[in-house]
Amino acid sequence: MSRQDINRSGEMEVFVRAVELGGFTAAAHACRMTPSAVSKLVARLEARLGARLVNRSTRKLQLTPEGCAFYERSVTILADIAEAERSASSGELAAGPVRINTSASFGNHILAPLVSGFLALHPRITLDISYTDRVVDLLDDRADVAIRAGPLKSSTLIARKLGATDMVIVASPGYLETHGTPTTVSDLEHHRRIGLSYARSVEGWPMRDAGDIMRLPLTPGIQVADGEAMRHMALAGAGLGRLARFTVRADIKAGRLVPLLEDFNPGDTEEFHAVYIGQGGPLPARVRALLDFLAANVSM
């Protein structure tokens, strides 16, 4: 078979469907092929590329590193083809679904107020938004963009900085009336502090004391899975929480929460990034539109 006879986009589409649907049988059904035809197509693809894309020793379809890289590039190429066809038939308007994964805190306090403005500018884009504070695999979760705090760890992902926020310790007026107001770092040992239970949480609270930065060990009476749950616990008078300031700014202004020990605040900040798959190649217009909008409009 000559190079001109190879339907590369067709092969990519079948391979992508197999990855996203979790196996050859499901992909065969979606593509109206037989499972053996899908298996042979992937085998021919591997032979032409000279690389194994899929490990077949497990019941679940498992990508090799080469297969993961080929999948990421295939998704981008197929999206570009679709965008080119849409552009030729209906202009350059960004269109289609964008799947976003973000924390409940960022989603409720930053993203939600921006959604209507974004959709007014891009009425042909639809948003599928899910909230979780756990680290997600963009491939497994089929997310176009994940919005997360902290450094980028995977070289297969690209991050676009959206902003940064400082941290603040807060408690409700009711809690302080019952338990007293801490005025020194050592006072915190006598108060119930709310901690985070997920794996990325930092051990202890950093504090500035006598000019030095120390980390106060945290033995929380309560642990929660995300920052928004911590905020609600603090609002309910359950204890002290250390939270991103943007999540409690309105509560502080309304008097529902009181900032504590600001003179001992070390001034550490938490950066937020929009993270997406890619190696510097072109992005689908729908994803690029969202990233550009967030970069221009997110304010912490």
What does this structure look like?
By secondary structure, this protein is of the alpha/beta class. The protein folds into three domains: 86 residues, Arc Repressor Mutant, subunit A (Orthogonal Bundle), CATH 1.10.10.10; 89 residues, D-Maltodextrin-Binding Protein, domain 2 (3-Layer(aba) Sandwich); 105 residues, D-Maltodextrin-Binding Protein, domain 2 (3-Layer(aba) Sandwich), CATH 3.40.190.10. Helices cover 41% and strands 23% of the residues. It contains ten helices and 13 strands. Strands 3, 4, 5, 6, 11, 12 and 13 form a seven-stranded mixed sheet that branches. A two-stranded antiparallel sheet has the order 1-2. The longest helix is centred in the N-terminal third of the chain and has 26 residues. It is elongated. The termini are far apart. The N terminus is likely disordered.
Shape: elongated
Helical coverage, percent range = 40-55%
Kindly name the structural category: alpha/beta
As for the number of domains, it is: 3
Content of β-strand: 15-25%
Radius of gyration: 24 Å
Task: Identify the CATH class of the largest domain.
Answer: Alpha Beta
CATH topology of the largest domain: D-Maltodextrin-Binding Protein, domain 2
SSE order: HHHEEHEHEHEEHEEEEHEHEEH
Number of helices: 10
- The overall pLDDT, averaged over residues, is 85
Low-confidence runs: 1-5
CATH architecture label of the largest domain: 3-Layer(aba) Sandwich
How many beta-strand runs?
A: 13
Main β sheet profile: 7 strands, mixed
Oligomeric state as shown = single chain
Let me know the CATH homologous superfamily of the largest domain: Periplasmic binding protein-like II
Give the CA-CA distance, first to last residue: 57 Å
